[in-house]
Amino acid sequence: MNSSMVIGQYVPGDSVVHRIDPRAKIAVIFFFVIIVFFANSVMSYGLLTLFAVASAASSKVPLPFIMKGLKPVWFLIIFTFLLHLFVTRQGEVLFSLFGWDIYEEGVIQGAVLSLRFFLLILVTSLLTLTTTPIEITDAIEELLGPLKKVRFPVHELALMMSISLRFIPTLMQETEKISKAQASRGVDFRTGSFKDRIQAIVPLLVPLFVSAFKRAEELAMAMEARGYQGGEGRTKLRELKLGKRDFILFAVFLLLVVGLFVTRN
Amino acid sequence: MDISFEHVSYTYQPGSPFEYRALHDVSFSIPSGSFVAIIGHTGSGKSTLLQHLNGLLVPTSGTVTIGDYRLKADEKNKQLRKLREKVGVVFQYPEHQLFEETVAKDIAFGPENFGVDAKEIDKRTKEAIRATKLPEELLERSPFDLSGGQMRRVAISGVLAMNPEVLVLDEPTAGLDPSGQREIMDMFYDLHHEKQLTTVLVTHSMEDALAYADHIIILNEGEVYMEGPPLDIFQHQDKLEKVQLDVPEVIEFVTKAKHKLGIELDYTGQSVAELAKDLAQKVRGGRDHE
Ligand SMILES: Nc1ncnc2c1ncn2[C@@H]1O[C@H](COP(=O)(O)OP(=O)(O)O)[C@@H](O)[C@H]1O
Ligand SMILES: [Mg+2]
């Protein structure tokens, strides 16, 4: 399989961040997202930024990949900043821009909100950048484990997720292959009227469905032949285990939380 | 149609973190009417190269010329459709592209897209299934009810019905049983001569390259590693082994006879068994003279 087909944004690596237990990663990120909203002083924001940037740096994910993840939200971040800059009318007037007064409070509010945004996106995209979809699925299954008590089909849900994830790259490759084959037989997917283009999709969709159904059948048969019978009493190939580095992470995060509440106003 | 590649490079997803250079400075030319085999191990860029032949891919740099058509980076080519009509491509596992309700409709799909009229399509369909040795009763059946081998023949018929001048084959016999492989390859070979096609075949089989091609291009890591007539190429066993390719059994036989026994066998397309007879004869003949 070629690397471009790795789905999501996962960037292979073996940094500390990659090797942290996915459950620990998800838990820490979950709480980080919450505590971001408690920060209210320069120092507290500084601490959070330090944590996020240090995590990003130790993940060894090249900057372009991180930036790529942030790309869709740059606009939102800048928009938030400008909105606050122009709309907030509190504090002292700092200067005028094209006859529009810019207030001190506007700059601060704008900066704070954009920073929050930036931190949230950075940390969450760090999860998908350093964790394979399968690890995320496993972690979600574990974290949702308690819900099995109320008969929530956690195992089945996780299985569905991992099977879909497994087959997305295959399906993408297949789509590319078949659309090239049909293009060679004179189908034009790019030009023509709307109706023509809809019609051009049929020769693409039929083979895709046929192969997807065939795959599903084969998979079901293979699973049955090997005695699959649901999640009850099933052991795992990839046993998740918290290790030393996970506890170090928890400790660092705890320090961050304490630091945050000390430096808050 | 004459085909030529001039300093062609192709990079998948340039500028992205997943950038991958699949072809690098590839140059060669194929005169009209030749049968060329492209060989190289998995990932060497064979399929990437093939997709340049009908404009599915356009070089990142360099120029591809096919007859009067020119494919060049940043140059809009509006006549891709015409090019695609003249260059028939049989992809790997072409049976995956079948989609129509009946075999006849699927074979007609290509020619219909290129605006061939119904009567002509009918004629070509019959011709195509005759060439691929499919019984005419199958025409009204659903392609999805056929065996794998039959589906492959239907897909190939669909390409033949376009009446291409250039036939591009990407491992067309992969996954077929040995007799089916032979039959299909012989069919392509006959068509090649009968219709004076230019044929470009990607294959893993050195035997096929030797039996059918008059020119071989060996790719390695996206570059042309060796090029020449089959008998010349197969003289260089050590050079081939460096890129994990081996020499056909027959050629090895001839080479060994020469080096170990000092006997020159004349290779003219015999099988190993026939060569063994020749060898026996020479040995015996040699003794008779003494
Ligand atoms: N769509 C694509 N995106 C990125 N890389 C690709 C794509 N298709 C092929 N490649 C890569 O280009 C290289 C050459 O592929 P290909 O031409 O299919 O080789 P071959 O047919 O000789 O096995 C391989 O390493 C493959 O991973
Ligand atoms: Mg290939």
SSE layout and pairing:
The complex is a heterodimer of chains A (265) and B (290).
Chain A: H1 16-19, H2 22-35, H3 42-58, H4 63-87, E1 93-97, E2 100-103, H5 104-130, H6 133-143, H7 154-184, H8 194-225, H9 244-263
Antiparallel strand pairs in A: 1-2
Helix pairs in contact in A: 2-5, 2-9, 3-5, 3-9, 4-5, 6-7, 7-8
Chain B: E1 3-12, E2 20-30, E3 35-39, H1 46-50, E4 61-66, E5 69-72, H2 80-86, E6 87-90, H3 103-113, H4 118-131, H5 148-160, E7 166-170, H6 178-194, E8 198-202, H7 206-212, E9 215-220, E10 223-228, H8 230-233, H9 237-242, H10 249-261, H11 272-289
Parallel strand pairs in B: 3-8, 3-9, 6-7, 7-8
Antiparallel strand pairs in B: 1-2, 1-4, 4-5, 9-10
Helix pairs in contact in B: 3-4, 3-5, 4-5
Bound molecules: adenosine-5'-diphosphate and magnesium ion.
Magnesium ion (MG) binds at residues 46-47, 92 of chain B.
Structure report:
- The complex is a heterodimer of chains A (265) and B (290).
- Chain A has 265 residues and is mostly helical.
- Chain A has a domain at 1-131 and 235-265.
- Chain A is 68% helix and 3% strand.
- Chain A contains 9 helices and 2 strands; from the N terminus they run H-H-H-H-E-E-H-H-H-H-H.
- Chain A has a two-stranded antiparallel ribbon.
- In chain A, strand 1 (93-97) and strand 2 (100-103) form a beta hairpin.
- The longest helix of chain A has 32 residues, at 194-225.
- Chain B has 290 residues and is an alpha/beta fold.
- Chain B has 2 domains: 3-247, Rossmann fold; 248-290, no CATH class.
- Chain B contains 11 helices and 10 strands.
- Chain B has helices spanning 46-50, 80-86, 103-113, 118-131, 148-160, 178-194, 206-212, 230-233, 237-242, 249-261, 272-289, and strands at 3-12, 20-30, 35-39, 61-66, 69-72, 87-90, 166-170, 198-202, 215-220, 223-228.
- In chain B, the strands form 2 sheets. In chain B, strands 6-7-8-3-9-10 form a 6-stranded mixed beta sheet. In chain B, strands 2-1-4-5 form a 4-stranded antiparallel beta sheet, with no helix packed on it.
- In chain B, strand 1 and strand 2 (20-30) form a beta hairpin.
- Chain B is globular, with a radius of gyration of 21 Å.
- The mean pLDDT of chain B is 90.
- The chains are: A mainly alpha (265), B alpha/beta (290).
- Chain A binds chain B through residues 2-4, 11, 62, 64-65, 68, 174, 177-178, 180-188, 202-203, 206-207, 210-211, and chain B through 12-13, 16-18, 20, 51, 54, 56, 81, 84-85, 87-89, 91, 94, 96-99, 109-110, 112-114, 144, 158-159, 162.
- The structure holds adenosine-5'-diphosphate and magnesium ion (MG).
- Adenosine-5'-diphosphate is lined by residues 12-13, 20, 22, 40, 42-48 of chain B.
- The site of adenosine-5'-diphosphate (ADP) has 12 residues of chain B, from strand 2 and helix 1.
